[in-house]
Amino acid sequence: MDALEQLGKTFFDWQAMVAVLPDLLTVGLPNTIMLALASGIIGTVVGMILAIMGISRNRALRWTARTYTDIFRGLPAVVIILLIGLGLGPVLRELTGSTSPYPLGILALSLIASAYIGEIFRSGIQSVEKGQLEASRALGFSYSSSMQLVVIPQGVRRVLPALVNQFISLVKESSLVYFIGLIASERELFRVGNDAASNTGNLSPLIAAGVFYLCLTIPLTHLVNFIDTRLRVGARQKPEPDNLAAPVGQGART
Amino acid sequence: MTATIESGSLTGRDLHLSFGANRVLRGIDLHVERGTTASVIGPSGSGKSTLLRVLNRLIEPDRGDILLDGRSVLKDNPDELRRRIGMVFQQFNLFPHKTVVENVSLALRKLRGMPAGEARESALSQLDLVGLKHKAEARPGDLSGGQQQRVAIARALAMGPEVMFFDEATSALDPELVKGVLALMADLATAGMTMVVVTHEMGFCRNVSDTVTFMDGGVVVETGPPAALFDDPQTPRLRSFLSDVL
Fold first, then answer.
1. What are the two backbone dihedrals, phi and then psi, of residue B231, each rounded to the nearest 5 degrees?
2. Domain housing B181
3. Among A30, B34, B127, B165, whose CB has the most other CB atoms within 10 angstroms?
4. A138 shares contact with chain B (CB less than 8 Å)
5. Are B82 and A138 inside 8 Å of each other by CB?
6. Which helix (DSSP H) or strand (DSSP E) does residue A57 occupy?
7. Which chain B residue lies closest to A238 (C-alpha atoms)?
8. Is A70 in CB contact (< 8 Å) with chain B?
9. Has residue B1 been placed in a domain?
10. What are B160-178's pLDDT values in tens digits?
11. A135/B93 touch (CB, cutoff 8 Å), yes or no
């Protein structure tokens, strides 16, 4: 019973949770959202550029995209975050006078996200049937208009679930900026929870931070399922009898 | 059918194309008079579909010339050339992320710069001609194959082409849907459209086309009026092909 009580106190100390709540809500949550959203948007834009480079007929562009992707997808996120966050600090200070590593955290997360998102987009675009590009070219559209109007919209639609999964990863990975040491007002959810846990010697604040993460990620997970179902239902075939083309078939039915 | 067909003649001269060591077209000559229908038949792999793609420069020929209305178009911008030649594919290739009416109006809006409302009206009247105005807001995936192919024909016609290409337009259709598409193609031929039809439908070749060209191994083996080709084939290759398909 003692052990159980001990566990309950370690993880579910309501007082400790309530104590950390204001910081989680006013500091941690906005910063986590900011980090994930900013790197998500930048990662999507850069990822699309990488995908287009990756399917380009220009070998140098393809090679550049390939190398970038291999590096930023192949390294552990924490290594990239430390290298960028600490390594580029002096450069940023020189350029802007800012000593905050916050933008570098966003940059590092964006670099990682763009490598994954680039691959997601590329696979989606390449999954679009060749006939789509051909039909668009046959109408008189240029290669780039065909890609913009016909191929890319279809490719992106197919990988929306994978893309949202990537955003879920980003929400969680944003906790890794912990390693580059942010000032008090820039702390994200994990750091707020972790600081409180260290101060009190109790893990309940981390549980509270965890609940906040779940509040962000679970709706996204359901969004993935929703999109996935919509895409599958939207793609289902329900051909109807062709009134004009099949008079024989019509007759047979009546 | 459309009252505003302004078709032109089409000529391919000594067209050659190789993919590596594979010589797909070996000196093809094809002439289609204004307002006539030329059917191209032949065994699979004979280069028929490739010939269509070379004639509208989806694939550039290695050698030879292409003339539209008597003028060489090899130096023209290929995108502009393709706006003058409508093409219908075996697999329809409608854009599944757009509605039927958007499929037809897309090129009008983006290539002709037509205002959205006007393009839509024009697309709707084109859909009316193929009997599918009531499906304007449907997605291509909700249509039968025959309906999809008729939308594809409307999409190609919307740009007011001078020539229409049909690449085995009925091969992917269930048998009962073939008739409607062939009837539409025949209407178009009657209305005076210049057409090049790659097909396995020998009935259509014989009854609708003005000339039939038999290709095999990347060359034209025989060409002439359908009656002559079908009733009096001159070469063993055509004789054996016809005995296989008829």
1. -90, -25
2. 10-244
3. B165
4. yes
5. yes
6. none
7. B142
8. no
9. no
10. 999 999 999 999 998 888 9
11. yes
Which runs of E-coded beta strand occur in chain B? 10-19, 22-32, 37-41, 63-68, 71-72, 85-88, 163-167, 194-198, 211-216, 219-224
Contacts of B142 in chain A (CB under 8 A): 237-240
Q: What is the pLDDT of residues B11-64, one digit of tens each?
A: 999 999 999 999 999 999 999 999 999 999 999 989 999 999 999 999 999 999
Asked whether the beta carbons of residue A242 and residue B144 sit closer than 8 angstroms, the reply is yes
Nearest residue in A to B160, CA atom: A139
Following CA atoms B202, B207, B208, B210 in sequence, which dihedral angle do they give, to the nearest 10 degrees? Answer: 90
**Count of domains for chain B:** 1
Q: Distance between CA atoms of B235 and B80, rounded to whole angstroms?
A: 39
Residue A149, min C-alpha distance to chain B (Å):
9
Across the interface, do B95 and A135 touch by the CB < 8 Å criterion? yes
Task: Specify if B4 maps to a domain.
Answer: no
Domain map (residue ranges) of chain A: 2-236
Rounded Cα distance between B53 and B224, Å, is: 22
Domain membership of residue B5 (yes or no) is: no
Rounded CA-CA distance B29/B51 in Å is: 10
CATH number of the domain that B214 lies in? 3.40.50.300
The fourth-level CATH superfamily of domain A2-236 is MetI-like (1.10.3720.10)
Pick B30 or A2 by higher pLDDT: B30
**Confidence grade of residue A94 (pLDDT, cut at 50, 70, 90):** confident
Which residues of A10-121 form beta strands (DSSP E)?
Answer: none
Nearest CB among A141, A154, A238 relative to B111 is that of A141
pLDDT, tens digit, 9 for 90 and up, residues A210-234:
999 999 999 998 988 888 888 776 5
CB contacts < 8 A, A to B, total 100
Q: Which residue of B has its CA nearest to A131?
A: B93
Task: Return the exposure string of B159-188: e unless at least 16 CB atoms fall within 10 Å of the residue's CB, then b.
Answer: bbbbbbbbbbbbeebeebbbbbbbebbbeb
Write out residues 152-171 of A within 8 Å (CB-CB) of B: 153-154, 157
Taking Cα atoms as reference points, which of A234, A236, A216 lies closest to residue A226? A234
